[in-house]
Design brief:
One of its GO terms (molecular function) is oxidoreductase activity. It comes from Carpediemonas membranifera. Its main location: endoplasmic reticulum. By secondary structure, the chain is an alpha/beta fold. The chain has a single domain, classed as Rossmann fold (3-Layer(aba) Sandwich). The chain is built from 13 helices and seven strands. The protein has a seven-stranded parallel beta sheet with strand order 3-2-1-4-5-6-7, sandwiched between helices. Helix 6 links the parallel strand 4 and strand 5. Bound molecules: NADP nicotinamide-adenine-dinucleotide phosphate. The site of NADP nicotinamide-adenine-dinucleotide phosphate has 27 residues, from helix 3.
Amino acid sequence: MGPCTVFCILLLPVLWILYALYPALRTKWASVQNLNEKYACQWVMVTGAAGGIGQSICDDLARQGLNVLAVGRNQEKLDELCSRLQTSHRILAEPVIADFSQTDNYTSPPYIEALESACAGKDVGILVLNAGLAQVGSVLAPNARALAAIAQINAVSQVYVVEWFMRRLVAHGRVTSAVVSISSVAAFTPTPLASTYSASKAFVSRFMDGVRPEATAAGIDLLTVHPGPVRTPFYDCLDDQTAKRGMWLVNMWATGPEAVSQAILRSVGRVNNIPQGFVGVWGELAMRVVGTGTVAWIMDRVGLGLIARKERALYVDKFAKRAD
Ligand SMILES: NC(=O)c1ccc[n+]([C@@H]2O[C@H](COP(=O)([O-])OP(=O)(O)OC[C@H]3O[C@@H](n4cnc5c(N)ncnc54)[C@H](OP(=O)(O)O)[C@@H]3O)[C@@H](O)[C@H]2O)c1
């Protein structure tokens, strides 16, 4: 084997890794775009606006002069956010109450009506789908309903909202617009104790990829963001004491919510999918290099995997006693 062949063989994996890292590298060094100028619209709609990442997104977009439709469930929190956005950035901000856990036998769920009437008469050109929550627990625990609700809130509702928004954009003849979805690095790997969360995020990521050709044809940029851990109230929902004890590990790698928002401004319309933060970037790369199976094997032996084993033992013990 000549030196040229050896060089080529060694070069191939390097090129492949660079290719895999391209969206992250592109995002890191790209300039922050002014989305007000890029999409020439007056309003942006942000779901989960009162949450950690949602608030940062609202602030960054309002700073660029965009009016904000802030979607969430808590009127008081949204009112507070809107009046702060209006005074700090001199824009218009309106609260929109919508609960994405609602279903309506697969016709149009009630939240679509709420979003539609909030948008009436407004030039809304950007939608950020950020609302979401996690539930940590064993599938053996009696909380299957709560675990299944995660799929409804994180995944199914996004189908309805994207479908409604895209139709609206097309009907209003907007030339260019954007839809951003906040997925998670969990989309790439089975996550013990958070199986419905990671599955819901995988659904959202693949859904966005599948819709992209139609969106592109309609002049709509679709961006999916895959953040690693982010310092927000997101983890307050953990009622599992054992999982809470693992929070130091999450905090060690976590970025601030403003980093996610800045990543969006750098990448929308330039790339389709971006990993975000140290865990997002290297986690995604690891999964591409060693494959989901290997990462799942590792996950099963550290962190949540270990806790899952303890929980399983607990329930197996409980069920065995009940059977006796
Ligand atoms: N924090 C992380 O480590 C991390 C990592 C990767 C991805 N993410 C994703 O980032 C997104 C934002 O999370 P965050 O970290 O900012 O957490 P957060 O502070 O808990 O915010 C979550 C937001 O989702 C909204 N929401 C929850 N359930 C809802 C429902 N049924 N209907 C409507 N809205 C609902 C909440 O609205 P209310 O104000 O009405 O409760 C809240 O504003 C989520 O999609 C999450 O999966 C987070």
